[in-house]
Design goal:
This protein is mainly alpha-helical. The chain has one domain. About 85% of the residues lie in helices and about 0% in strands. The protein has 3 helices and no strands. Helix 1 packs antiparallel against helix 2 and helix 2 packs antiparallel against helix 3. It is found in: Membrane. This is DUF423 domain-containing protein.
Length: about 110
């Protein structure tokens, strides 16, 4: 494996690791919040992270291991799913703080 392809593989590993941790956080927060909108947003974020890992990291692994260039254009689709997942995660956090403020807990 060339140094370039090794770097491609390592990029896939890095993003998979980061988003696997994000998946764990989504699961922990979804299980511990009574707010239905936040639970749904955490669930949607987790789905986006899973799809992102499959498309982003998976295509980088396939590119690095096979050298087939047509796996490259699949990678940005995974990146978009990562961004959508982070958006859902931010929305879930907003839902949690909004509901908490309505109840007067943080005031």
């Amino acid at each position: 494996m060339s140094p370039y392809l090794l770097g491609v593989f390592e990029t896939g590993v890095t993003y998979q690791f980061i988003h696997s941790l994000a998946l764990l956080l989504c699961a922990l927060f979804a299980l511990n919040t009574p707010i239905l909108n936040a639970q749904k947003a955490f669930h949607r974020a987790a789905i986006c992270f899973i799809i992102g890992i499959l498309f982003f990291s998976g295509s980088l692994y396939a590119l690095a291991l096979t050298g087939v260039k047509w796996f490259g254009p699949i990678t940005p689709l995974g990146g978009v799913m990562f961004m959508v997942g982070w958006g859902f995660l931010a929305y879930a956090g907003y839902q949690m703080t909004d509901e908490t403020n309505k109840d007067g807990v943080n005031q």
